[in-house]
Amino acid sequence: MKITKICCIGAGYVGGPTMAVIAKKNPNIQVTIVDINQERIDAWNTEDLSKLPIYEPGLAEIVGETRNKNLFFSTDINKAIDESEMIFISVNTPTKTYGKGKGMAADLKYVELCARNIADVAKTDKIVVEKSTLPVRTAEAIKSILHNTGNNVKFSILSNPEFLAEGTAIKDLLAPDRVLIGGESKDAIEALANIYGSWVPQEQILRTNVWSSELSKLTANAFLAQRISSINAISELCEHTEANVNEVARAIGMDSRIGPKFLNASIGFGGSCFQKDILNLVYIARSYGLNEVADYWEQVIVLNDHQKRRFSDKLISTLYNTVSGKKIALLGWAFKKDTNDTRESAAIYVTDHLLSEQANIAVYDPKVPSSKVYDDLNYLQTRTEEENNSLVETFDNPYDAINDAHAIAIMTEWDEFKTYDWTKIFDIMKKPAFIFDGRNILNKEEMSQIGFEYSSIGK
Ligand code: NAD
Ligand code: UGA
């Protein structure tokens, strides 16, 4: 089946970069990304490429090359569905905040709305691709909605989970470790494999059944997050035994069966997916009565929450057991470097804890706008917006954020933090000047020599 027009529902962190790369590598295919969020679509269409709604290294260049040639952004969802032979569903699948499965299960209402929208509009046969991360067996529900329209349109459903990481999305998309396609219809699978085949070697395109594909995505994220919780657990033991977590990580990572990646001890993982996907996995396991399986994976989250909490606890105890009225400068608000995404960022939870202890928080992040910091804190509903406004200040310049601070807490591993004039920073801080390096990016000896009271994770 030859595909000439593709539509992607959801212009977010996955839909935007993924479709931009598909458009770049398939100049003969017209790719339209649609979304219900007018503001987001306007931002994707903005002339000034530095103002795209998502910051990802290399993304603006690709959008600049392809936009309005074979890549389009629109809110006319029905038109795009009607015209396309292949439709990707790339909408958000957050943890449910209500009803059955609240706080655990994935909320599939947006995915279902897309399926119903496609069912209503389609007049010709379509391949529907699940790009969102979905619980195993979701395709069953999508199939049921699409196959009961009574309009004689044939739908093939594929699962094609996305493995990109934010901050390296373009690099990951251009050279993926693998592409995974799950489905029943061989024609549909090959139609999608052909699109990726424009730049991904065929042997790296895996074909599986739909359920393996859906479950592989949750499993991949669970394994990745488990590595971080494992090294973070060891980091706490290091702090009690004079072992150094970096040295331990290096020593175990050189074992080729373990491998060196994803062993950076940290303040705890953030991001929109690890926690939500593991909670979802735990929920699914419980729903099958597999309590030991559920308990096993749940520990990854328990440990992660502990890691965030113990960071702020240590900060408070080191500052003589009180941060009330003290200025704490937070460097970084994004959940990792090279992204403006703050979803589930550890910075939010550390700040919330410090605010409960009446600290004054000064935030600097190179890419996160001030409004996002307040939105993230207000969303928690721990205190009023007025209180958040009065206790938290954001800055466009790190030195202003740090001026007169009692302590610095490094929340994100932005490269620029390493290049700051740390002697000047020491001079403008209150003494003793404390640094809590939640990302282990600074050199302990150098910092101590300047005069800082420096502490990091797992050392
Ligand atoms: P996002 O929130 O950035 O984007 C989702 C978009 O979908 C939003 O702009 C929203 O307005 C739109 N949307 C929701 N319902 C809609 C509807 N009915 N019609 C049209 N548009 C609609 O989310 P994201 O980070 O891109 O994640 C999307 C999916 O991909 C999730 O399932 C996530 O788990 C998965 N995923 C995310 C990442 C990542 O790094 N962010 C990586 C791999 C997989
Ligand atoms: C993660 C996965 O890496 C992607 O493969 C997956 O597609 C994606 O989730 C998803 O499904 O959403 P992402 O969350 O964007 O990608 O970024 P990661 O690089 O995985 O980092 C996640 C969090 O773990 C960050 O807070 C990061 O700082 C932290 N981390 C990562 C560590 O603390 N230590 C590490 O060694 C690695």
Automatic annotation (TrEMBL):
It catalyses: UDP-alpha-D-glucose + 2 NAD(+) + H2O = UDP-alpha-D-glucuronate + 2 NADH + 3 H(+). Residues 329-444 form the UDP-glucose/GDP-mannose dehydrogenase C-terminal domain. Its EC number is 1.1.1.22. Keywords: NAD, Oxidoreductase. Pathway: Nucleotide-sugar biosynthesis; UDP-alpha-D-glucuronate biosynthesis; UDP-alpha-D-glucuronate from UDP-alpha-D-glucose: step 1/1. InterPro entries: 6-PGluconate_DH-like_C_sf (IPR008927), NAD(P)-bd_dom_sf (IPR036291), UDP-Glc/GDP-Man (IPR017476), UDP-Glc/GDP-Man_DH_C (IPR014027), UDP-Glc/GDP-Man_DH_C_sf (IPR036220), UDP-Glc/GDP-Man_DH_dimer (IPR014026), UDP-Glc/GDP-Man_DH_N (IPR001732), UDPglc_DH_euk (IPR028356). Gene3D superfamilies: Cytochrome c1, transmembrane anchor, C-terminal, NAD(P)-binding Rossmann-like Domain. It is an enzyme of class 1 (oxidoreductase). Belongs to the UDP-glucose/GDP-mannose dehydrogenase family. This is UDP-glucose 6-dehydrogenase. It comes from Winogradskyella vincentii.
